[in-house]
Structures are given as structure tokens and as C-alpha cells.
Amino acid sequence: MLHTGAAKKVTIYVGEDQQYHGTALYAAILDFLFYRRVAGATVTRGLAGFGADHHLHTTRILRLTENLPIKIEFIESPAKIEEVMPKLHEMAGTGLIEVQDTTILKPSVPAKKQAAAGGAPSLKTEGRAKLMRIYIGESDRWRDKPLHEALVQALRANDIAGVTVYRAIMGYGAHGKLHQQSTLGISHDQPILLSVIDKEEKIRALLPLLDEMLQQGLVVLSDVDVIKYTHNYQLVERRHEVR
């Protein structure tokens, strides 16, 4: 667990197609950090870049590549960095490792420890609720923004507990037109599913707004039993925003 004070930030740059013992290198590094109890790590995928070989890698449609830049980044104590660095150096191979001095002003707190300290009131409920599924197309829009993004923002503004957006690989709707991902992974109207669970009164209060926002699409409601829920999402959100 991290503490306030001096620390080190490590950034490892590798290629997406680099392997380590038959596994993607970035995934192998992440597993290593996890099982060596590093406090946390983030993997990001670049859109374009070049490395020591000076080969340009990009996601442009006319120049497809499977070797985009990957960045693994984590922050730990100097002692922990010294412990894991020899193995990381061996795993990274031709990749680049960068280490910077940094200062932790506020360490993150595991959710279980915060709950035990009484920092977050439980929102756990057990009982009947409603599952709402919204089926739309990826190209659908609402006021100059993707409809699925607008729906998520509307649900959040109305204090809905949570929503998950899924992009399907194939499907068709009322008009019978088949939508699917092409061989090159390029599509402008793949099916989108939004899944929402909350109390029935909150879900039904949203229906007039959904009727206004959805020019076409399908909305269905199902009864569900809520077995487990999470702690206060507002406090969790604040922790993520300050990282």
C-alpha cells in the first residue's frame, strides 16, 4: 500500500505485438506487477508512434498495423521499484523503461478498508428491481453527439445507479438490415446495447426522456433480483478523479 511522500513513477514502452513466453508482453508485465503486489498499474494503447527502429506505427485505415505502442505505468515506493526492476528489465527486452521521481500527496485507499473505516455508507440492496435494456445503433446521434454517450450522461444526471454500454459484433433491428463488423474491423453502425438496473420508480420516471431522445431503437424492461450492490459511487468517483 502506498503512503504519502517520495515515490517513483515507472513507465514501460513496448510494442503491442511483442511476446513473452507466448503471451502478449504488456499482459505478462501487468500479471507480474499484480502478483508482486505492486499498488496499481495502467496499460494504455497508443494511436501512433515510433521507436528505436524508426518504424512509424499508426491506426490509420490505409495503414493497418498490429504493433501499436503500448505504455505500462505504475507508481510505487523506491524500495519496491528496486525489488521488481531486475525482472522488468529482463522482460521488457527491446522496450524502453523510464523512471521518474514523484511525490504522493494523497494515496488511494482500497474500497474494503474505506468501508471498514465508515467512510462510505452502503448502498447495498436486496430485492426486486428493474433491468432496462436499450438497443440502438452506433451511428445514432442526439444533439451532435453519439446517442449512447448522451444516454449515459442523461442516466447519470438522473442519479441512476449505473449503466453499462456494450458494442455488439453483429445484429439486426426492425428494418431487417444486418449490421456486423467487417474483416478489417471497420463499421459505422454496429449494434449498441445499454444495460441499466435500478428501482422501478426511477426507471419508469426516465421513460418520457427516453421517448424524446430515441427516434428509433428498442427499450425493454425486465424484473430482476438484486443480490449485491456496491458502496457509495460518488465517493469512489472522487477517488478516481484525483489520481
Can you give a write-up of this model?
With 243 residues, the protein is of the alpha+beta class. It has two domains: 5-107, Alpha-Beta Plaits (2-Layer Sandwich), CATH 3.30.70.120; 127-227, 2-Layer Sandwich (Alpha-Beta Plaits), CATH 3.30.70. Helix content is 27%, strand content 35%. It has six helices and 16 strands. The protein has helices at 25-35, 78-92, 111-116, 147-157, 200-213, 233-241; strands spanning 5-15, 19-20, 23-24, 41-45, 48-50, 56-58, 69-76, 96-104, 127-137, 141-142, 145-146, 163-167, 170-172, 178-180, 191-198, 218-226. The strands form six sheets. A four-stranded antiparallel beta sheet has the order 4-7-1-8, with helices on one face. A four-stranded antiparallel beta sheet has the order 12-15-9-16. The chain has a two-stranded antiparallel ribbon with strand order 2-3. Strand 5 and strand 6 (56-58) form a beta hairpin. Helix 1 packs antiparallel against helix 2. The longest helix is centred in the middle third of the chain and has 15 residues, at 78-92. It is elongated and about 60 Å long. The two termini are 15 Å apart. Residues 119-123, 183-187 and 236-243 have low confidence and may be disordered.
